[in-house]
Amino acid sequence: MTLESDLRKALDLDQFYLDYQPIVSLDSGQVSSFEALLRWNRPSHGIVAPGDFIQVAEDTGLIVPIGERVLEQACRQLASWRRDLGTAAPTSVAVNLSRIQLMNAGLPDKLQSLLSAYALDPHSLHLEVTESTVMRDAQTAARTIKRLRSMGVRVAMDDFGTGHSSLSCLHEFEFDVLKIDRSFISNLSRGRDFAALVHAIVTLARNLGITVVAEGIETPEQLMLLQSLDCQFGQGFHFSKPLRAAIAGQFHLPPP
Ligand code: G
Ligand code: G
Ligand code: MN
Ligand code: NA
């Protein structure tokens, strides 16, 4: 049984689902949105994380139907939180996109029909792309990102700072959100250089009018440092691991 044929079967049998990790305002301590993270409930393997199958899904093109399933589930979940929780519902959900999905000419129309079908404000859908996703065919990526943003969808640069062209990325593409890679955060306590780097990224983003999210916050010390560096939003195990949808909808952080 190959991974590819199991992935096809997983689509037929609806074995994919999303967990949701809170993204928190570092000022107010309120949950502002959730990042949707793909999971595969694979028979006789248990829960499989995307790191173990995304590459094969990309190589076989299966990432397109899988990704459409992900977008549909995220939109449906957001609509259902709206219906059940009203004003207490999360305001947005961030979905990760592979390069093949971003390059797929059908993506904007697909998204438009999902947003209409679930009566969602386009601002409530955020798409996360990495530097390597956009840089391989930068012209096409820039055009697609422009089109998505003109629909009102927000676009985030994920894992910022790990690629080879992070800075040129910022002027070639219009990003709404910049997510500082967790390697910068985990090194924060290793001395002043990393704090200086993070502070520079936060300031740069602010001056460009881009929202900043620090990824991979694991300790109260990292949180305090990021607050002192004026970082607006954060995400990481310190706040919460990715959660099942039913738990995420009810999730609140204790008041500080
Ligand atoms: O295996 P692990 O959970 O650590 O993998 C996380 C990686 O998988 C991250 O790079 C994340 O961006 C990616 N990922 C998570 N969910 C999705 C998804 O729905 N689609 C795509 N294309 N990538 C995803
Ligand atoms: O590449 P991307 O940022 O989309 O990856 C998301 C991945 O990061 C998920 O697999 C998620 O479980 C993981 N993650 C989220 N918060 C933390 C954290 O605080 N520490 C570590 N090590 N991983 C995290
Ligand atoms: Mn991400
Ligand atoms: Na990331």
Describe the structure.
The chain contains 12 helices and 10 strands. The chain is α/β, with parallel strands linked by helices and 256 residues long. The protein has one domain (3-248): Alpha-Beta Barrel (TIM Barrel). Strands 1-2-4-5-6-7-8-9 form an 8-stranded mixed β-barrel, surrounded by 4 helices. Helix 3 (63-85) runs parallel beside helix 5 (107-117). The protein starts with a helix and ends in an 8-residue tail after the last helix. It binds guanosine-5'-monophosphate (G) (2 copies), manganese (II) ion and sodium ion. Residues 21, 37, 96, 158-159, 182, 215-218, 235-237, 242 line the site of one guanosine-5'-monophosphate (G).
Topology:
Elements lengths: L2 H10 L3 E10 L5 E12 L3 E3 L5 H6 L3 H23 L6 E5 L2 H5 L3 H11 L7 E6 H5 L2 H13 L3 E7 L5 H7 L4 E4 L1 H5 L5 H17 L2 E4 L5 H9 L4 E2 L8 E2 H4 L8
Helix pairs in contact: 3-5
Protein name: EAL domain-containing protein
Features:
10 strands; 21% strand; TIM Barrel; binds sodium ion; alpha/beta; binds manganese (II) ion; 256 residues; binds guanosine-5'-monophosphate
